[in-house]
TrEMBL record, chain B:
Keywords: Membrane, Transmembrane, Transmembrane helix. One of its GO terms (molecular function) is oxidoreductase activity, acting on paired donors, with oxidation of a pair of donors resulting in the reduction of molecular oxygen to two molecules of water. This is Acyl-CoA desaturase. CDD domains: Delta6-FADS-like. Residues 115-385 form the Fatty acid desaturase domain. GO terms for biological process: lipid metabolic process. The chain crosses the membrane at residues 103-123, 205-222, 266-290. The lineage of its organism: Bacteria, Pseudomonadati, Pseudomonadota, Gammaproteobacteria, Alteromonadales. Residues 27-57 are annotated as: Disordered. InterPro entries: FA_desaturase_dom (IPR005804), Fatty_acid_desaturase (IPR012171). GO terms for cellular component: membrane.
Amino acid sequence: MKALINRAAAVFFHHATWAGYWETVVQMVNPSWRDGYYQARVKSVSTLSDTSVQLILLPQKRWPQHTAGQHIALTVEVNGKLVTRVFTIASGQKSRQNEGTIRLVMRVKKDGVLTPYLSALSSKSATQAVSKVSVNISAPMGHFIIPNAVMPNAARLDKPESTSLKGAMPEQIKPVVMIAGGSGITPFIAMLEDLNSASSDNLQSLPIHLLYFAKENEHLLTDELAEHKRLNTYFTYELLCRQKDGGVEQLLDNHTDSHWMVCGPQSLYDEVANTHANLPPSNDVSLDSEHFAAFPVATAQTSAEKAIFSLNHNGSSLLVDNQQTLLTQLQQAKRPVTYGCGMGICHQCQCVKKRGVVRDTRTGALSDNAEQLIQLCVSQAVTDLELQA
Amino acid sequence: MITTINTDTVKTSTVNKSIVNKGQVFKGSNNHLNSGENANEQASQRASISTESSNTKVPNYSKLATQLDAVKTDIKSKIGSEDAAYIRRVILAQRACEWTGRILLMLGFIQPLLWVVGVLSLATAKILDNMEIGHNVMHGQYDWMNDKHINSKAYEWDIACDGSSWNRVHNYEHHTYTNIIGKDRDFGYGLLRLSNDFRWRVKNLWQFITYVMLSVMFQWGVSYHEMAAERVFFGKKKDNRKNQLSHAELKRRFFSKGARQLVKDYVLFPLLAGPFFLYVFTGNLVANLLRNLWTSTIIFCGHFTGDVQTFSAEDCVDETQGQWYYRQGLGSSNIKGGKLFHVLTGHLSFQIEHHLFPDIPARRYKEMAPQVQAIFKEHGMHYNTGGFFKQYASVLKRIVRYSFP
């Protein structure tokens, strides 16, 4: 029925969905309602440290249950513009079931797009008006979770794209080593919360060791880690600092019989993956990962130096440089592209950038890292890109 | 009945179009060779160019570009939540007008006045959808919002013309090559002779009637025209233009969008009204007609007033940004009016600003206009503006004037 109505909406009202056609009308009563998104009320905003903020959200009832370790896309309107960022949920199923809330922990960048919005929110929270603010969130996504064998709750999740190299036998409990970098601690905090509240002995007795790398004195949520250690005798952790404690490789030497889970910047993942690859083949280590490409520091000067980036265009990839426009390079590569004026007027060559940063050749302005429409004829690559025509 | 008229227009347009094409071929290829047959035309052209250049000084193009760029940068920094809220408000008003209209049409049996209000309401909704929402959103003016529905890729308007076909022809050909004879096919829509750049033909004698017909059927005219229909249906091809979509695909789009519009207004909603089928049927017909007349009139006032200049293909070879601005400015004309008038024209009453800055949200043109006018004055460029009746009279005069050799 719903499909039929949406079909009719597309045919006669030229909107992809019937709800989309009525969006502005619904927004009269419910300003943050958006077709295709879930809503969540902002319960509180608080500062964790100089560089990080904690956001407690109350998702609407029909929002699906998440599994500890999954992430969501958070969408807010900043000065008329919808800005979307992806965050790992830093809380487990328990707090959602008991209080209905989920928690996000985010690093605040000085000139980040979300920063002004968040600081406006935290000033509002002083006046208690914050609970009236709603944001849009996506359904929980991702497969970075404690392996099925030990988390029966997670068993219903299918894991088609999982990077997990399944080595563990289902009935055998294999110790877990969590390797976190910076704000990459968030999925592990969620997992620890759920492990501690789990009823099954099987889970309570899962040995877990956490290696947490961060800059000196910038480790997040250390109180909570201490609390988890107090509650769970099988959990141990080390707060590490690269300058003081060196790399991750020698620390992992003692844990070759474990399941490794790594979450953090690309560099940390690379290091762990290398270590994993260099282990003798007889070992029994499996590796699960979630890593974020660090947001590149792109400045106006970057364009002077020729650089090559990879471009994923409609699923197939090619290499592009930062000297010519994307349109020129796609044409040279004989890719099927629609185009027109070649000077940014006609929007013929417009396509959806799923991720990556581009420079507008007319103004030199850099784009956002998130999904948005770009015009190929006036865009140059600044980072690796993923496009969809 | 509708289909008959439609076929007629199609035929007329085909015949006239072929003349234009010959004119274009001639102009492009024989520019430096005076072939006897067309000597007269070239002479008259040169005469008109020289009179123009004698009373217009050539502006400092790079300064013009810097100044207009500055106006644009200044406005761009102001664009934000106000503009997002504005376009959502207009969409809300459109929904309100549309459904008030559609319901009142069915209530026409109680009191005919309700039907009249219904027609006006539905016509307003269609005008808002085409002008302030459709035209502007499809220009990419609101793409920065990252909204799923309000962006140039997703938006599709409520007229017979397929949005992506329009996007291709209007945004590309018309906005890039504004008023360049032979490249901007919007100049006269291939039906009307509006300057001496086209050779006179006997058919031009009754082009005023053609104009009235075009206005009445405007949505179909645009739809047909934007598809470069004569090339699709009758197999004409131009060497210098790449066919980016197959003809079959274009044909499919023309019929599918057009048919959907016909079914919606003349079958679906009338049937929903049950016994009041005819009330709704005629109401929709009148609403569509009012919309057609309004949009056609506003668009003609934007480019075909008496003082608007035309350009030749050579003018835009290696064109600088300043020269481009110059051509856009002189190829367009504004209409003065009140706030509501501007909204109903989709701010195309600020056609000059729209052509200079096609992807700035149109509601901002009003505050840019005084600055643009001052810059034009400084460079001795004619800022073509006037009241609605003055501009429209000048359009009609132009159509009549060029009916004759």
